[in-house]
Amino acid sequence: MNEHTPFKSVAIICGGGPAPGINAVISSVAKIFLKSGYRVIGVHEGYKGIFSDSPQIKEFNFDHADRIFSRGGSTLIMSRNKPKDDQFNVKFFVDNNVKLLITIGGDDTASTANRLSKFLKQKGLDVSNIHVPKTIDNDLPLPDRNPTFGFHSAKDEAVKIGNTIYEDARTSQNWFVTSIMGRTAGHLAFGVATACHFPMMIIPEMFSHTKPTLDKIVNLIISSMVKRQLLGINYGAVVVSEGVFHILDEEELKNSGIQFTYDDHGHPELGNISKSTVINVLVQQRLKVLNISIKSRPVEIGYELRCCRPIGFDLTLCTLLGLGVKKLYDNGLSSCIVSTNSNGDITPMFLKDLEDENGKIKPRLVDMTSEIARLCFQNLHYLTEADYDQVPNLKSPHEFDFHKILEWKV
User: Which residue of 44, 84, 206, 227 has the lowest C-beta tally within 10 Å?
Assistant: First the structure.
């Protein structure tokens, strides 16, 4: 029996991958619950840790909570473990007199928490659960189109890199082909391209009227390169969202000549390749066939974003979400997600309100009909029909026409 068992406890776990601001959430939760007389324990390795024979825990006091709030990364080791129902047990919750489980993660972490809450209730335990959503991809459908925590910090870090890349391109008079994280949505790529004045961006949302292919991606990049040559600009940078790869047909990927490793189900493991290198090689091969001399180099922007220090926006947001957990718990709510709007009001969300008929959460995408999207895409550099006569070296200029590639109406 743990000597702290008589005290009511709250437990915190972190699932999925890192996002700037996790420590601010943990710190805020710890401080507010310690102030109310609760024992606050963090569990390393998420659900895997909770259901292990010997959970590795972090006992929080004010001193530790106060030291971590502005740091990047997570003071609690994270895990993508997703236990099945038959792996659940009550030992950790009974031994530590846990009254509230606070989960920080994505929709998988939240849905597992929902299953776990039902299991504990069936076993006669009164354990609430409140989930704090996080992702640098900004693809959760939060109310008022509010950003997910970590997104703005990751974007800020990526913009620093993007600005340096663009300055290098101008200084050395060449091109950089950049790829950036974003599994389903292009928010990060869009943010970097617009903030850094890149002449071309490629995000999944662009392909709403046509099937995406590697050829189309390559042609969009070359369209920008050639257009800039016409303008007397011999440098540039393009950012390609990782999400574009996830909407390509697997057969095309397998037939592309890229050396993939494959998972147990025979699917290409996209996480093991450099997307920027792949695209840059294909661009250089195509330029050679076209007899166009343009230098380009690949840059991958990925893991360096996830554990950067959170900027002020996320520090405020994460502090509010942490305090919001206490508010929802005090109001007797459970199995819910803490959220806030642009006024800073705390409101609960429930998975059932976000899930479709198949139990999946539809990702929030870049709104291509929004004015910001329309204006930013109009400001990119690319070939159009008006340029055909100026590019006699291109035998089929329509293949590099931005609007024709994407089948957009002008």
Answer: 84
